[in-house]
Fold each of these.
Amino acid sequence: MSSKILSAAVVGLDAEIVEVEADTGGGELGIIAIVGLPDLAVSESKERVRSAIKNSSLFLPRVKVTINLAPADLKKYGPSYDLPIAVSLMLAAGSFSLLGNPEEMLFIGELALSGDLRAVNGTLPIAVKAREQGIKTIYVPEGNAPEAKLVKDIEVIPVKNLKQLVRHLNGKEIIAPAPYADFNFSNTKILSDMSHIRGQEHVKRAMEISAAGAHNMLMSGPPGSGKTLIARTMPSILPDLTLEEALETTKIYSVAGELPRDTALMTSRPFRSPHHTASGAALVGGGAWPRPGEISLAHRGVLFLDEFGEFPRQILENLRQPLEDGIINVSRAAGNLTFPAKFILVAAMNPCPCGYLGDNEKICTCSPHQTANYKKKISGPILDRIDLHVEVPRVKFEKLSSEAGGENSAAIKSRIQKARAVQKERFKGTALIANSEMSSEAVKRFCQVDGDSMMLLRNAVNQMHLSARSYFRVLKLARTIADLAGEEKISTPHIAESLQYRARTE
Ligand SMILES: Nc1ncnc2c1ncn2[C@@H]1O[C@H](COP(=O)(O)OP(=O)(O)OP(=O)(O)O)[C@@H](O)[C@H]1O
Ligand SMILES: [Mg+2]
């Protein structure tokens, strides 16, 4: 006898339907053969399936069973085929009869030897694909049900173990479908508040602009001046995620296996801070089974690179494409994959190896050669992609010891939320979300400036030797500064402030 049921494979951030066929008869007793480009975890599936069926007191046929995973040219990874293989096998063997149309059902899940189901990665993209294909019901491990349920118009059946599923499928015990849950988008895990930072008003201002328009920022200053502290406070002012953004980030976390098990949806903006010893693949993504890297995990959030100068130059150069296009191409044996990577880069570094170059109290002990070498690590093209260059000097003792803190995060965040709302209105009907994402065409359309501002810009471009990219970036940043001020038109003060943050080229 033969049977056919549906499952799915994750490819990049999307899923593709996989047919799991089982055929009994011929050959040695009790043998299970899996064909259709399985990896090791899939091949080992037969051992788990065999034990799970036996330990669930279900009937295992004493015949040879061949399992085919189609399409054959799509490589199958991971243990999520255990459940569909078990179901298909038992159907082919006539262990139970299934009520309903198998073409309207999809199965995923890893089996423990006991027959219990374990959660798997990539449930959200699989649920999205299932709905597109007109599948009505998906059967997933209980732990994945809330994530699958983010796709509204599909029935999600949370399954505890194989035995329960079989009883459900043959109509003996009905499992209740997972309910749809509403979500509250606010950054919940806030550790510190902006008001705890003494002084550094101009740095906080730059951070506000960065969060409001999703602009990249580089802080440079002597040791202990508060760069790391300020960057780590940024989540407290980041705008709340929208549902669309939350679904985008959740998909990435789901595929990367980084979605915490008790979370269905990412409700806080990501804040990733990989160490400078992280590998290239960990940072940008890749591997034999391509996974999104830190820059994609930071999508719609912040990628904080502390000790920026310590990152290997080659790794920083890999950031050039994502910083420009908001995506990363990861190559793999079977072709190229693209992951989204629209993040705010926040970087911090010392101005030289000893850290005191330009400090007005301590003398820098580096030779000009050492300093030049240190600066060379960060290439011009990378610096050109950073809109906000800010110096973080040491705070004077009087300020540090004073009681008065600055504005708190809630007040700053409310201005940022307003500026984001203005951007949302502006970019209605386009794929843009924040000012920093504008193409040069969009800049021409949305960043009109008056004659005086144009003159200021022209002089600056000539005197500061700004690149064409810098010119557009100055305008985008000025747009955000005007949005924060609640002004529709970009005027001279906005351009002047924007220019202040440009990198000085010696
Ligand atoms: N402006 C400030 N307000 C309050 N505390 C501060 C400030 N600046 C520094 N500190 C205190 O000093 C400590 C060191 O600051 P931080 O680690 O942020 O320095 P840094 O600039 O990152 O130095 P490094 O270049 O060595 O990495 C912080 O934990 C914080 O307690
Ligand atoms: Mg630091």
Note: The mean pLDDT is 88.
Amino acid sequence: MPDLDAPQRQSPDALMLTGFWYRALPADRVHRHQLYKATLLEIPLVIGRDRLGHPFAMRDACPHRGMPLHCGHFDGENLECGYHGWQFDVHDGQCQLIPSLTADQNLKVDRIYAGSYPCEEQDSFIWVFIPDPGPPGAGFTAPAEPADEAPQIEKFSENYNLAYLQAEMPVSIDHGIIGLMDPAHGPFVHQAWWWRSRHSIHEKKKNFEPIPNGFRMSAHTPSSNSAPYKLLRLYADADSITTTIDFVLPNLRTETIRAGKYWFSSLTTVTPITRNHCRIDVVAAWNLFRWVPLVPEVLKFVFAKFVEQDRRTMELQAEGLQHNPHLMLIDDADRPAKWYFQLKAAHLEARRTGAQMKHPMSGPVTLRWRS
Ligand code: FES
Ligand SMILES: [Fe+2]
């Protein structure tokens, strides 16, 4: 059977890194016995939960003639396509039944697969593993096996709170990510009386070091002009507060703040939906302020405000980007963005040659900027 609908994508594609886990949907929005559409890396997906509540993700196109599977019927175990009634196991995509076959027609139904993807629930999100594009002949292959589990937020105590925020941005994943790691926009985009003003700009010096697939802003005492850290000082003396920020391919930004036995961790991802559209998901876990009334709400409000400021900025930026302007990255404030592009290039090169990835940083680096 010729493959009529496999996407003709260029591979490797630097905007759509495959072989990684991506956040697809918030877990609390996915209920049993219902089907949900999602798009990751321009791949249409249908997502749901089986009878036991385990999540699954399939390609939202029937391998027979491309009918979207989310229009089909789901009984909690198999998904039946709405066009000719072929049935598929939702976890591995294997075809279970082709109703049009007569008893003496011996087409091997179990050799046919709908596209399906490894799927896990982790820290409030349904994660989907997007494998490297397989050999032609889709429709006949079982799902790929991911090397690792979906990323998790690091937690430092048994009890904690968890909350998430999302924002859609009309820009490519690259602009989403470099906007996230860019220290210089803070005083201009994130102004607020309770936070900081542009007059609080001062020179900063931060140490960075290479880590596998990424880089780390080494543990440091946080900057004096930011509100969460002002709050944290209620809990511990300023010198004992440390924060570490990691960026790891393809899209993971982890921030960990520790103040004695108290901690705050967040994992932010920028997910490519299409080439010109990404989504930011921030999930935070913390054991601070758990018993203080309203503090979690205040924290969530502060974060939501930040994310909204970034979203609005990128919405405006998208207008300028439509005209394909020449862009630049400057030292030192844009150096993390340069590392991001170098990491991706090194990753793609390693995939191409099969050799070990050559990390673009050879050792620790100190960067200086004003923000
Ligand atoms: S298109 Fe799905 S069964 Fe025919
Ligand atoms: Fe920002």
Note: The pocket of FE2/S2 (inorganic) cluster (ligand 1) is lined by residues 62, 64-65, 67, 81, 83-84, 86 (CB under 6 Å).
